[in-house]
Amino acid sequence: MILEEQLEQIRKSANIVDVISSYIPLTQKGKNFFGVCPFHEDHAPSMSVSGEKQIYKCFSCGATGNVFTFVSEYENVSFLEAVKIVADKCGIPFSGIIEKVKPKAYTEEYKVMDLALKFYQNNINSQEGIQAKEYLKRRSLDESVIKDFQLGLALFYENALYQFLTSKKYSSTLLVSLGLINQSNGEVRDVFRKRIMFPIHDLDGNVVGFTGRIYEDSTQAKYINSKESVIFKKGKILFNYHRAKQEIKRKKEVVIVEGNMDAIRMYASGIKNVIALMGTSLTQDQVKIIKNLRAKVILMFDNDEAGEKATYQNGMILASSGIDASIVRISDQKDPDEYIIKKGIDALKNNIKHPITFLEFKLKYFKKDKDLNKVEDLAHYIKEIIIDLKNIPDEITRELTLKKISKEYQISLDLLKRELNKLNIKQNKQVEQKKLEKKKISKYDRACQTILYFMMNDEKFVLKFKKELGYFSEKKYRNLANEIIYFYEINKKIEFSDFISFINTKDDLADEAMDIIRACKINDFDIQVFDECIMVAKNEMVKNEIRILKEKIQECSDSSEEIELAKQLINLKKGCVGNEK
Fold it and tell me: 13-46, pLDDT tens digit by residue?
């Protein structure tokens, strides 16, 4: 929460040029400043920063906004956290309240998971938790780790958690949906029993699930995890992210490991910029989270065949999103957890200081299971390298790699280049085809978005919209238009930079507004363009009303009502281009 007056004061006190230049180098050209955009793979300065308007705009990817949105996107923090960062940079006292984000729709679900966590924590600190703590002690996990990572214990009893939570008036249906209990044939059983419990947090630090590990000899699975629920989506979470985020930003480096235990061991041993996967492969949501960290990425997976395969697969996933990961392959021990126990934390830190490039890893990986003394295997190996090089944008890397292969295996460099060029031509054709096939936004949607963008930039368009159109049929456009009009009526003017601050305090509209701002690459606010968009929107809305009236006429059983509807239809058709018939 923050008062609009304080928000405006901070924004006006912060010079956007000074703030952005503290993150990326800017060069002045005329009135504006230019820099390499940090929000996409930019190799030439395509981001313009206007000190006069206090906004930034990338002419390549469309990223745009004010000083708060830049910091929010760059630092990967909430809008309110970004306001605090800007206030601190400007030396302005900040009285806003920042709390962990809990989506309003799932308040009850979060409360249940918090209670389950407290129940498990209480158990491990009770008489019944002694055996579990002894196990953790043997694994070199002391009381500080138990406390810091909120480790707990699921009791042996079949429905201990169920009894506790239902006593708090929570329904068994809710508990089943959250993966805490199983219910079958009238019997209720806790999902987790006699297991050490590792809580899983979302990006904001809210408990959303659990991993349970056995601590005695058993034929059961070593680990079981919570099933996915409305608040727990594995593909949107990275284990330990909420703890590691600040250290990652400070060091500008993130180490990604496979298992929760690896992350816990490393974090507790002093490597605090570590996160773990929630599955074998990164999802696009997780890649986006990692990309927003803007940190060097190091993959350090298990020292086995599965870990080697996961390194290749996830390295390729990252590379396809423009992230060039470095690789650490540990030796002698199975995983980072065991490595630290057997060889010590300093030995692991030394490994992390000396990673290899992903390309070096791939050159070794492609040799796997091949006898390069055989012509067929050598040809296959070289083809794999060439196929991989077509996805590497850096020409120097490609050239050096081809020269290395040419020299090492006595193959013509010209031949290798010709093969690579063939693949590049084929790939370019495929990219162009995909662009053509990409779904286009409708003319009506583009008109509505353009109208709204014009309105965000100048009050004359707000007044013109009210006079000539007045509303949108679609709720998402209508609500945003209402907020723009409200902002104008309160302030008696429209300033784009201030409007961005205002709309980012509206949780239900901020994303829609920012999507429109990013999509609209307009600098010249031509009144004729606005009028044309108004006409497109008006015409489409009339067409929609005509369609509704036709449906009513078909369903109508009253002749007098049908005549009245027909008159309305005729009047609408008169004013709608292309629907005169």
Answer: 899 999 999 999 999 999 999 999 988 777 788 8
Nearest-angstrom CA–CA distance, 38 and 91:
25
Q: Are the CB atoms for 510 and 79 separated by under 8 Å?
A: yes
Burial of 62 from C-beta contacts in 10 A (0-12 / 13-18 / 19+): middle
Instruction: Please state the φ and ψ torsions of residue 578, each to the nearest 5 degrees.
Output: 90, 0
Query: Does residue 109 sit in the same domain as residue 226?
Result: yes
- CA end-to-end span of the chain: 55
Asked if residue 340 and residue 244 are part of one domain, the reply reads yes
CA atoms of 354 and 223, how far apart (whole Å)? 32
Same domain membership, residue 172 and residue 211 = yes
Angstrom distance (rounded) from CA 159 to CA 542: 61
- Helix crossing, 4-13 with 496-503: angle to 10°? 130
CATH number for the domain including 267? 3.40.1360.10
> What single letter denotes the amino acid at residue 145?
V
One domain, residues 428 and 468:
no
How many domains are there within the chain? Answer: 5
Task: Give the Cα separation of 184 and 181 in Å (integer).
Answer: 10
CATH number at residue 13: 3.90.580.10
Provide the percentage of residues in the chain whose pLDDT is more than 70: 89
**pLDDT tier, 579 (very low <50, low <70, confident <90, very high otherwise):** very low
CA 248 to centroid of chain Cα atoms: 16
Do residues 356 and 327 make contact, with C-beta atoms less than 8 angstroms apart? yes
- Please give the helix or strand (H or E) that residue 18 lies within, else none: helix 16-21
Residue 18: domain span: 4-90
The number of beta carbons lying within 10 Å of the beta carbon of residue 561 is 12
What is the distance, to the nearest Å, from the Cα of residue 40 to the centroid of all Cα atoms in its chain?
14
Q: How confident is the model at residue 423 (pLDDT cuts 50, 70, 90)?
A: confident
What number of residues does the chain have?
581
pLDDT over 70 at 521, yes or no? yes
